[in-house]
Amino acid sequence: MAMQWSIRPHDAEVIQAIERSTNVSPVVAQILALRGLTNNDQINSFLDLKMTGLRPPQELPGVNQAVDVIDSAIKNQKKIFIYGDYDADGMTSTAILFRCLQLLDADVSYFVPNRLNDGYGLSIDNLKKLKGRGAKLIISVDCGIASVDEVQFARDEGMEVVVTDHHHLGPSLPPANAIVHPGIPGTNYPFTGLCGAGVAFKLAWALCQHHCGSAKLPEKYRNFLFGAISLAAIGTVCDVVPLLDENRIIVHHGLNCMRQYSSQGLKHLMRLAKCEDKPKLNSEDIGFSIGPRLNAAGRLGQAQLGVELLTCDLEERAEQLATYIEELNKNRKKLEKRITDGAKKLIKENHDPEQEPALVLTEPDWHLGVIGIAAGRIASTYHRPTIVISTDPLNNRPGVGSCRTSCGVDLYKALQGCQQHLIKFGGHKAAAGISIDPQNIDAFREDFCEQVISQIGINELIPDLEIDAEAFIGHLTIGMMNELEKLAPFGQDNPLPVLCATQVQLVDPAKTMGADGSHLSVQLKQHDSTIRGVAFGKGEWAAELSDTDAFFDFAFRPVINEFRGRRNVEVQLIDFRPSQSPVATA
pLDDT tens across 44-102, in order? Predict the structure, then answer.
């Protein structure tokens, strides 16, 4: 789908004022201004990533009550179960609290639901099983805030419950002994963007301080927290929460600590992901290398092994787990491609993305663990909220759907507006899940499209590519990238800057790369300067980029590619078009 390009307007006086007051380069000043950071306090807060910028854990709503409940359980040697979730955020959350409670000599185990059999969150059946295994205290991580009936069941069965979560709050809170959540009604925690692992990290930090009776911790507890913040960094990047405020500090320090303080299991996984030899890890290494491998374990029903890997320090077992999860990731890629290709075929045969405000696609036996990735791919390709539903031809289970958006539509709000067609739903603004009777899919599709249109008009669904600045290829140097790195870590709500270059030629026709030819590689030339460009998942562009005599405009994000000790600037292509009139100013 064609994008509408526009360059964001710049205020030269504001940019010059930022340069003078903060001593940053013009390019950094320009990006800061475009992101609304214009006064010294805002800028210093954004650029200063000291660990002391994290708020004391006791300020997080519910932490003190949770510490009291957990401390009592430890002292009385009650059996504690960490009840996790099967995505990377849930696995890292589980690993953080499990290792913490082990350090505090608790009688602790963990349980992670099987994505394919159990579904998301607390379930009465699983709580019954844990009671049978002697559970006296359940600590949920990255789930539980909407589990009112399930928590009541656990309480009725004599179990205590501590809920730690960050997801959307429902109309009523579960009757837990304690709830740790940055957005609990009636509280005013300044930053509600923590992920599940960020919440678990804050609770673990508070537990260590309570156990030691001091804010200043002995070395073994500090070393544990360095490892815990590395896990929290993985959860933060993978759960696509805003990389602002405390999350920037968590990811910055987590990346710095990851090599030294991670479990042997995670270190082996990093080797397989080819992250071990990099001079410096960045958030893209988590988002594109480490995170997908962990998520593959959860998507294919092996999240329990993912947690074991994150907590394993036995060399032989760690290597076995990492190797197995690497194989799961290869299988995940094959399944994902099959579903995405099938979804695109359905769209071509039965849908008109130009006219439909949302895409609701369904097919029997699409793999439940991979439909979320496929939904994300389709949403990105067609710039439409997308729901991919897997149905059971034997009708032994309801249809299960994953929802993704790429155009600013609030999925949770849209699903609320047509929940009469659903068995259940949950999630947040950018990602959600549903359960539905297959007979209701057509009616649901119609109402869901109406809900999307009520939020955002059909004309606003035309992809709008906002470009931070036009750049010359010759200006994309290591020095410029070092300046941009001051704005890292990059991610949700703090993306890599988007630049464009006009009147660019190809040195050679574009080539596909990857085992299945799904990615693109090209050498770009502007005046006397050349640079390599890559486009992941855009192998189909190769046919359109074969004319070396033609001139093109490219929109891209500049990155540093590190290979065998060499650092080169290259560009990750977002879009291209034949060179035409100047880019519009927004």
Answer: 889 889 999 999 999 999 999 999 999 999 999 999 999 999 999 999 999 999 999 99
The beta strands (E) that lie in 415-516 are given as 424-427, 431-436, 464-467, 469-470, 499-506, 511-513
Beta bridge partners of 504: 552
Contact 297, 82 (CB under 8 A): no
Amino acid at 64: N
- Between CA 481 and CA 531 the distance in angstroms is 14
- Burial class, 407, CB count within 10 angstroms (exposed 0-12 / middle 13-18 / buried 19+): buried
- Taking residue 151's Cβ as centre, other Cβ atoms within 10 Å add up to 26
Q: Dihedral sign, CA of 376, 378, 381, 384?
A: negative
* CA neighbor of 359 nearest in space, from 368, 370, 374, 367: 374
Q: Is the dihedral of CA 62, 64, 65, 71 positive or negative?
A: positive
Q: Do 522 and 546 contact (CB within 8 A), yes or no? A: no
Instruction: Give kind and range of the element (H or E) at residue 321.
Output: helix 315-350
The dihedral over CA atoms of 181, 183, 186, 187, expressed in degrees to the nearest 10, equals 80
pTM of the model: 0.91
Instruction: Provide the residue type at 576 as one letter.
Output: F
What one-character DSSP code corresponds to residue 286? I
> In which band, very low, low, confident or very high, does the pLDDT at 584 lie, cut at 50, 70 and 90?
low
Does residue 307 contact residue 83 with C-beta atoms inside 8 Å?
no
Q: What is the Cα–Cα distance from 264 to 267, expressed in whole angstroms?
A: 5
Q: Phi/psi class of residue 241: alpha, beta or left (left: φ > 0; alpha: ψ in -120 to 50)? A: beta
Q: How big is the chain, counted in residues? A: 586
**Spatial contact of 43 and 32, defined as CB atoms under 8 Å apart:** yes
Q: Is residue 178 classed as helix, strand or coil in its secondary structure?
A: strand
Single-letter amino acid, residue 136 = K
Exposed e or buried b per residue across 123-148, where buried means at least 16 C-beta atoms within 10 angstroms of its C-beta:
beebbeebbeeebbbbbbbbbbbbbb
Q: Are 554 and 504 in contact (CB under 8 A)?
A: yes
Residue carrying structure tokens 């990155």: 559
